[in-house]
Amino acid sequence: MAYVPFLAEMHNRTRRDYLERVVRFDKAECAARAKQWGHDYWDGERQYGFGGYHYDGRWLPLARRIAGHYGLKAGDSVLDVGCGKAFLLYELTRAVPGLKVAGLDISGYALEQAREEVKPFLHEGSATSLPFAEGSFELVLSITTLHNLPIFELQQAVREIQRVGRRDRWIAVESWRNEREKANLLYWQLTCETFFTPEAWVWWYGQCGYTGDWDFIFFE
């Protein structure tokens, strides 16, 4: 297992008003709507989630970094657990022509908004029960998804990622390193159920038998 920090540059491009989300809006009501994983979360007003999540090519540099780091080549297979609108999967097919991709997400709305090129390879479902055989993929990704699971489902989801991976795995979650980042995360998040420090996440991965890599995003 290793810390592989792919996400920080992309994450830090966005400016966030942490206090606005708890002062100006009814945070509990916003969170309840976000957890429906529908239009409001993806393409509604910013207080409910992304505030409009559309394809703009921003994932291509990350796709190239992932492909280079893990040595992906034509014929290899990649699974994204919690793929959302599957923009990263689409960019991976651009970065590595001939790559086989699959994605799973709990949001039927998000999957409907995916690019047509990857729609046939997407599945609606839960990270706790992946509909794939053991060792199906050279690389299994999960980006800012697993922290949305309650602790009693998290272990099963990590074990599923371990099970269907054949070679490499990479999980990225939200985390905090100090009290300021913890407060900002609590102010900003809408869907998190599990809150760990990086050290606690790594410990938990070990308890689940996970042998892959990890990454974190922090709300500085």
Characterization of this structure:
This protein has 220 residues and is of the alpha/beta class. The chain has helices spanning 8-11, 18-23, 27-34, 39-43, 60-69, 87-95, 108-112, 151-164, 179-188, 198-207; strands at 77-81, 100-105, 122-124, 137-143, 165-174, 213-217. It has one domain (8-217): Rossmann fold (3-Layer(aba) Sandwich). The chain contains 10 helices and 6 strands; from the N terminus they run H-H-H-H-H-E-H-E-H-E-E-H-E-H-H-E. A 6-stranded parallel β-sheet has the order 3-2-1-4-5-6. Helix 7 links the parallel strand 2 (100-105) and strand 3. Helix 5 (60-69) crosses helix 6. The protein is globular. The two termini are 25 Å apart.
Offer a quick outline of the entry.
The protein is of the alpha/beta class and 220 residues long.
Distance between the terminal alpha carbons, to the nearest Å? 25 Å
Which CATH first-tier class would you pick?
Answer: Alpha Beta
In the sheet with the most strands, the strands line up as: 3-2-1-4-5-6
Number of strands: 6
Q: Helices and strands: which structural class?
A: alpha/beta
SSE order: HHHHHEHEHEEHEHHE
| Overall domain count | 1
Mean pLDDT, nearest integer?
A: 96
Per CATH, which architecture?
A: 3-Layer(aba) Sandwich
Please identify which CATH superfamily we are dealing with.
Vaccinia Virus protein VP39
> Which percent bin holds the helix content?
25-40%
> What would you call the shape?
globular
Predict the CATH topology: Rossmann fold
Q: Whole-number radius of gyration?
A: 17 Å
Mind summarizing the main beta sheet?
Answer: 6 strands, parallel
Q: How many alpha or pi helices?
A: 10
The residue ranges in which pLDDT falls below 50 over 5 or more consecutive positions are: none
